[in-house]
Amino acid sequence: MKSAGKIIIFVITLFALTASAYAQSPNEQLKQMVEQLQKAPGDNALREKIIKLAAEIKLAPAIPEEAERRMVRGSAGVKTATKPADFKEAAVEFDQAALAAPWHGDAYYNAGIAYSKAGDHATAIGKFKLYLLTSPSAADQKDAKAKIFEEEFLIEKAMKSDSRVMGRWTRMEGGKIFYISQKRYSDWIIMPKGTSGFEMYETHSWEEELAPARQRHLIFSFAVNGDVLEGSSSWDGTWGDRQGRLCEPITSRLTGTISGDGQRLNVKFQMRQQESGCNVIDVTYDFGRLW
What we know:
This protein is α+β, with helices and mostly antiparallel strands. Helix content is 47%, strand content 22%.
C-alpha cells in the first residue's frame, strides 16, 4: 500500500511539473494578447486586459521600436498641423503606437490631444480614459480627468449650436449621434466638429472592429446657417466594383438643407463612379425622416 501511495504522489508531482513547464509567463501572455488586439483593434475589453496585465508585470515591458517610430511621427504631425485633418492624421499615428504597445500611456494621452485638436472630442475622451488605466501619477491623473471635463464641455457647447441636428437622431453615445439607414444597411454618425459645425460619416457593421479613424470613407463636414448646410465632402477612394477597380479620392463642396424640425437632411456633393470610368458625378443624399 505504501508503494502504491508513493506512485500516486509521484504521478501527481509529475503532472504538476509538466503543467508548470507549459504554463505561459506573464510576458508570453502579454505578447499573445497584443497579437490578438492587432487583429481586432476595436476590442477595448482586450485592450484593457493588456493594460492591466502590463501593470502587474514587475519589470515593465519594453516599448517596441515600431511604437517609438509612430510616436515620433505623431509628434511631428502635431507640430506641423495647420488644419483639423492634419491633427487627425497625427492622431492615427498615436493610435498605431498604442497598437504596437497597448500599455504605453503616452500614446493614449497624445492621441487624446490630437483628436481634441481635430475636433473629435468624443474619441478624445475615450483615449484619455484609456490613459487613466495605465496608472499614471496622481498629478497626471488629475490632468487627464481635467481634459475629459474639457472635452465634455466642448461636446455640450457644440450640441447647443443647433439642437435640431443633435436632437433628432437614433441614439447618443459619448457625444455621437447614430442614424441607421434602412436603404444602405449602414450607420451614419454625426458628431460635433470643434466648437462649431458637425462631421457626419458612414460606417458599416462589418467594420466595427476597426478604429474610428479607419471607418470614415465618406465624410461630410458642415456648418448650419439657418436651414442651410455648407461645407465639404471627402471620399477616400476605398470602394471598388466587383472587378476590384478603385477610383481616386475626391473632395468637393457640400451644400444642403435641414428641415425646421431636424427630421430631414438633404446634402449635395460630388463623387467618382466606377461604372462610368471614375468620372465625377453629382450626388444627392436625402436622409428622409430620421428614426
